[in-house]
Each structure stands twice: as structure tokens, then as C-alpha cells.
Amino acid sequence: MSQAVSINHQDEIAVISINNPPVNALSQAVRSGLVKCVSAAVAEQSIRAIVLICTGRTFIAGADISEFGKPPLTPYLPDVLATLEGCPKPIIAAIHGTALGGGLETALACHYRLALNGSRVGLPEVNLGLIPGAGGTQRLPRIAGLENALDMITSGRHVKAEEALEMGVVDELSSENDLLKIAIEFARKILTRDKTWPRSSEIKLEDSSVNQGVLKNWKTRVSKKARGQESPLAAMESIKNAIQLSFAEGLKKERELFLTCMASPQSKALRHIFFAERAAAKLPESVANTPIEIRTTAIIGGGTMGRGIAMCFANQNIPVKVIETDQEKLDQALNAIEKTYAKMVTSGRLSEDQRQQRLTKISGSCNHASLAQVDLVIEAAFENLEVKHSIFRSLDQHCRPDAILATNTSYLDIEAIASAVREPSRVVGMHFFSPAHIMKLLEVVRIPQTSATTISTMMKLGKQLGKRTVLVGNGFGFAANRMYSAYGREGQQMLLEGVTPIQLDQAMKNWGMAMGPTAVLDMSGIDIGYNARKQNPNPPDDPCYFRPANLLAERGYLGRKTGRGFYRYDPETGLASEDLEICALIREEALKLGVKQRDLSENEIQQRMIKAIATEGETIMSEGLATRTSDLDVIWVNGYGFPRWRGGPMHFSQSIDR
Ligand code: CAA
Q1: Residue of the nearest CA to atom 38 in ligand 1?
Q2: Hey, which residues does 442 pair with through a beta bridge?
Q3: Can you list the domains of the chain with their CATH numbers?
Q4: Per-residue CA distances from 513 to 221, 265, 384, 645, 656 (Å)
Q5: Which residues line ligand 1 (CB under 6 A)?
């Protein structure tokens, strides 16, 4: 028998256990082991039922993604699952952790499903540019109904066991810890209760007008939401087959669609980013060390960033103190946090209990003496070196000598900030993105003096806060803002060449970006970048450098907050419209600068913008400011709304260069 799958007997019940760390993925060894163990259980006459259970942290979390893109190895998963469903003895899937993708498909092919409270199930294949490829699109609609299946498969969301029970995906839930014991009791119960075992392939789905209507509504919804992504639509097509074709035919078509998706550039890109995100969390050996535990934190500054960062900690149950310069500012900050949580309750994103729990984690003070016992301080004050210097001098006096001192600067020189303290090995950058409690990206910025313990602690903390955390080096704009600046600069150059803000934004949105670059500038405030550029110690010697944005900033057209920026904003509705005066102003400036006016195609705009990012990314790599090229993809996908299905700017550029 394969080591990854083993079988033992508990009287008349066979227990098949999968042990394939870390997540019991369905590797070839697991697939063949399953077939052998089920055959053995069928052959053994004393066995009347089979429990399928996994060791370690989770039930099967899906197919083994590392096998994708390589020649497929037998036995194929659909055949394995046909063996499970066709087994004459009832099979009970005992779920803990997460049953995902091929893992849930395995459970759906079993005759019964039992889950521990707190476990989750899902078919997240669309997130890898795939569709469920082992019967998920055919079995789930039969078991959970068309609407639930459409929701789960096209979104890829993980469904809590309690909801899965309501949908009928799970037959029973248990809150006891001993899953094996409960599963064996359950098996004994069904042996006395049931004469036949439910087989999902035998359930009939009607090709009724009601179901047709449901499909039509979902098609409109999914087409709108997918925005360029192919797999959710392919999944819909396969689900449609579940009501229009026989199970066997539906399964065959599902496999064809699955293989087409697997070969697509989108799936390659999404698989790349899946592994890139996990690789980014791994530290190079030279800086890996045992992290220390962060139990208490303080944030210096209760402005927008400080509040958002404080909420990140409270959301993870870590006590956090907000430090302000006076009581009025502190009250403002704490009230704003309360309001944000209250809004989240109103919109249903948070329960009242959660709100209260989180608020108990946040306290405030106007006195640096209250920092004496904290493990970590994050300074989130103005972007001004003098201000930061004086704060760090004070931290040096008031904090424990081993407390980590972080700065949330976006571009200032962290070595210069660290010069204010006696022990710079505990100084590090923690660059959150706004709104900090929502954005997934976190840059941990190290300076040469930062100790391995400090770096390891911050990387671990980033994961604990639910962030995609990337380690970068110190340099103006670090990695993220530096690349974004190259992207912005190229866009600004094209505005001078005659592209309008609308054309530029539309081109990038059509390409898949969440927002266009000038709309982003208007939203965040044109003065932010303007002031940041002024602090650049080595600005490029180029009169065109961000000239349109600078021009607007100099005239007080700062974007949404002033009602005018690259667009004009309706004071009542906030709706943006084209501002022809601004277009004319930019053109006039371009002529003064001698920039030739011409028409640029959408394709040229897109290619130039992405090339600008990738070129800057290569420079960042050559300067040793990031660990892996793929870390830069993680930055773009999680920080700037870059379409995941394009894999990030570095992956995209490399794939078209090949
Ligand atoms: N195949 C191979 N490796 C996998 C894997 C998979 N399906 N899922 C996770 N891993 C690996 C990760 O790469 C990581 O490896 P390293 O430690 O070497 O980096 C390790 O398992 C742990 O993963 P995480 O760091 O993500 O751990 P987590 O606890 O934060 O999350 C998880 C666990 C929720 C299972 C998450 O890993 C996850 O979402 N995995 C992907 C699940 C998925 O997409 N399944 C569908 C696969 S496609 C499919 O099944 C097609 C089909 O129809 C046949």
C-alpha cells in the first residue's frame, strides 16, 4: 500500500487515512493509494462501510497544483472518484480543516459527508483559472441545487460547514474533537438506518424554464464580475451541462473544458501568483531567525493610516494603543475607528459582538511614557524626516530596549530615521497601503542594520495580520511605490503626447486594472505624489517628469477632494466627467515642452505602461532591493489592482518575451 494512503479496520468499518502533508493534496500517490485501499475494503468481506479521513491539519485541499502543467499521471481523479461513488459499500467522508477543489469533489463522490464545526468547503478552481475537473460542476448542482452551485463554483468562495449543512453539501456537523470516533459512529448508524446509499450522479436535474432563468441571470452577473477572466464563464457552461446532459456526458465535457482552461495563459498566470504569494512569505536563509511574539503594539499617529493600522491589530485580537499629541486628536481618531466598525456592522460585514470585541482591543494615550511595555511601535506620523526623527528619539527613551520600532513611511530613508536611535537593529519599515485595514499588501522594509529577529518577527506578524507580506530593501519608494511611480510617469508622459485622462484610464481598465492611473491620482490626492516627489534625493533630470500632475497640484486641482483634478467632479453626486479645460492645459504645457502630439492606440498605451513597470522591476532586482522577481508580482496583484489572471507585471512581461 502507498504510504500516503493507508487502511485499517475497526470491526466492520474500514478506515482509509490520507497522510500527505502539508495539505493532503491529491498527488498521484494519493490517487493510486485511494483506489487500492477502496478495492481492498471491497474485497474484505467483513467490512460493511468505509470512513475516509485525513491526518494533519486538513482534509484534502485539492489536486496537487505542483503537478499541473506536467504530463498527467494515472489514475486520473475522475476515474478514482467513479470508483468511490460506485463502491458497493457506503463511504463516509470525514472532513476537518478545508475540503477544497478536488478534495470537495472527492467528498461529493462519497455517499455521506460529515464535517467538524469550523471546517470549510469550496471549489476554488476559478482562482487558479480552472473549473472543477473531477465532477464538481456535475455533482454539486445535483447535491446543493443549481443556485448554490453557481454561487460556490463561479466565486470559488470557501463556505463554512454550517452553511454547507444548510445547502445539503454536508449531511451532519459535529462539535466533538474526535472526528474518527464520530465518523465510525455515523457509519454504524447509517448501516442500521439505510438500505441504499445516495449516489449524486443518480440525482436528476430538470432542464426547466425556472433553471434556464436562473442560468441566464447568473450569466449576466458572472460576465460583469469576471471582467476579462475566462474560467468563471467556462465553469458556468459546464454547470449548464449538468441540467442539459446526462451525468456521463456532462462529466466528459467538464473534463474537456478543464483541460482547455489548464492550458490557458490565464491559468498559468494564476498558478504562478498562487506559488509566488507563498514564496514571498519565505525568508532568505541569511535573514531567517526565530521570531519573537508580538503581544502588544502601539501606533504613533491617529490619522488615516494610523487608524487603519490600529484596526488591523484589533481585527486579529492583538491589543493596540493609539498615541496622539493631544486629547482632541486622540478622541477624533478613536471616534473615527468606532464609526468605521459601526458602518461594518450596518453593512453586515461584522457582527455586533465582533465590533465590541475589537473595540476592547484598542486604547489611546497622549503620553509616550505609556509605551514602556509594548513589544512593537509603528510610527505613522507625517511624511517628514524631522518629525519622524523626533518621534524616534522619544521612542528610544521610552520603549523597552528590545521593542521593535517600525515606521510606516512610504518613501523616506529608513536608515536616516534609524539614526535617531541607539540600536538600529530593531528598526524596520512597515509600509501599509491605504486603507490599511482593507488592503492586502504589506512591505516590510529592511535596512542593512535590521536584525534577522526583527525581520522574521515582522514577516510573521504580517501573515498574522492577514497581509501578503513582501520583504524589500530601503531606497526611495522601496519596491512598490518605485514601480508605481514608473507606471505613473509613463502615463503622464503619454498625457503630454496627446492621450486624454479618459483614454489612458479606459485603456488600463480594459487591460484589467481595477482603476485607471489618473482616476487613482484624483482619488488619493494629486498633492500626495507631488510632495513625495519633492523629497526624492535624486529626481530625474527630465522637464516632462510628472509635469501634468505637477501642473494640477500647483494650481490647487488636487483631485476629488477639491472637486477638480484630471476629472471634474459633480459636487452633488461625486460623478466624474471629462474636463476639457484640463486636457487643453496639458496640451498647452506639452507644446511648451516641445512634446510631439500624436494618436496612440489602446494597445500601445497598454504595452508602454506595463513595460515601464517591468523595466523598473528589473532595475530593482539588479539593485538587490527585492528577493525574487515574483515578489514584485505579489506587490502589484495585492497593492495596485493588477489583474491576478495576468500573473503580475513581471510574469506577464516574461511570458510575452518568451
Ligand atoms: N497543491 C499543492 N500544494 C499546495 C496546495 C495544493 N492544492 N495547497 C496548498 N499547497 C501548499 C502551499 O504551496 C504551501 O506550500 P509551502 O509551505 O511549501 O509554501 C503549503 O501547502 C501550505 O499552504 P498555505 O501556506 O497556503 O497554508 P494555509 O494554511 O494558509 O492555507 C489552504 C491552506 C487553504 C489549503 C491554501 O493552501 C489553499 O487555498 N490551497 C489551494 C486550494 C485549491 O485551490 N484547491 C484546488 C486545487 S485545483 C483542483 O483541485 C482541480 C480539480 O478539480 C482536480
Answers
A1: 61
A2: 432, 469
A3: 5-262 (3.90.226.10), 297-479 (3.40.50.720), 486-624 (1.10.1040.50)
A4: 19, 17, 31, 11, 18
A5: 22-23, 25, 61-66, 77, 98, 100-102, 105, 124-125, 128, 130, 132-134, 136, 278
In this structure, how many other beta carbons lie within 10 angstroms of the beta carbon of residue 523? 14
Most ligand 1 atoms within 8 A of CB, residue of 65, 465, 628, 644 to mutate: 65
Contact of 484 with 633, CB cutoff 8 Å? no
Could you give the residue numbers annotated as active site? 105, 125
What's the CA gap between 420 and 431, in Å, rounded? 19
The Cα 465–Cα 318 span in angstroms is 9
As a whole number of Å, the end-to-end CA separation of the chain is 43
C-alpha cell at 633: 508580482
For 220-272, how does the pLDDT look when each residue is reduced to its tens digit (9 = 90+)?
999 998 889 999 999 999 999 999 999 999 999 999 999 999 999 999 999 99
Cell 532568505 sits on residue = 284
Q: Where are the alpha helices (DSSP H) in 245-383?
A: 247-262, 265-280, 304-315, 327-346, 352-360
Read off the pTM.
0.93
- Measuring from atom 22 of ligand 1, which residue has the nearest CA? 22
Note the pLDDT tens digit of each residue in 598-642: 999 999 999 999 999 999 999 999 999 999 999 999 999 999 999
d(Cα 298, Cα 391) in Å, to the nearest integer?
13
Query: Cα–Cα distance between 225 and 10 in angstroms, integer?
Result: 49
290: burial class by Cβ within 10 Å (0-12, 13-18, 19+)? exposed
What is the atom index within ligand 1 of the atom nearest the CA of 64? 1
